[in-house]
Design brief:
Layout lengths: L1 H36 L1 H10 L2 H17 L7 H17 L4 H19 L6 H11 L4 H15 L5 H19 L10
Length: 184
């Protein structure tokens, strides 16, 4: 009987240790993803309907991002794009409607130059979220306003907000704020 009790205790101990190890691994995974993705983590978990699914989405994004050849811009390209942005921004007062469209195209052009694939908007936003999780929401907000503008449903204040959102992403894309492939 003592041998059976000893075996039961060992099995129960093994199960408890395995369960604790599993929980620790899950907690570290969650902490790592929350740290890497910031506010995007909460948005994706909520949208996915749960932590496990949301974290799976975020890990898929990381794996996809590792396959992409994203690179910083050369100084000459940065200067050229900065000059283009300054021109777009200076024309906003006289023609806010056109400026928002140009800003959208310019952000897309910089993304393309950095190596981001230019599939549909949702995929672009997902790709951007890995390297720029804080400003990706600016991209979504600006894009939403641009779509409302195309339908004639955005006023000048909306267009101003879109420009502010585009500028936040544009400045980060122009910088070397990308995350390395190892997530450092």
């Amino acid at each position: 009987m003592n041998q059976n009790l000893l075996i039961a205790v060992v099995i129960v101990s093994f199960v408890v240790v395995a369960a604790l190890a599993f929980l620790v691994v899950r907690m570290r995974r969650s902490q790592r993803l929350r740290s890497r993705f910031g506010p995007e983590y909460d948005r994706v978990v909520s949208e996915a309907g749960g932590v496990r699914r949301g974290e799976g989405v975020l890990e898929f994004r990381e794996k996809r991002r590792e396959q992409l050849a994203i690179h910083p811009l050369p100084a000459s390209d940065k200067a050229m794009y900065k000059a283009k942005w300054d021109e777009v921004q200076s024309k906003f007062v006289d023609d806010p409607r056109q400026s928002v469209g140009v800003a959208d195209r310019l952000v897309t052009e910089v993304m393309r130059a950095r190596g981001y694939p230019m599939s549909d908007f949702d995929q672009r936003a997902a790709d951007i979220s890995v390297d720029h999780p804080v400003v990706v929401e600016n991209y979504r907000a600006a894009h939403t306003i641009a779509l409302r503008h195309d339908r004639g449903q955005a006023d000048t204040e909306d267009l101003r907000r879109a420009m502010v959102h585009y500028r936040a992403l544009f400045e980060e894309l122009l910088g070397d704020y990308h995350v390395s492939k190892k997530g450092a």
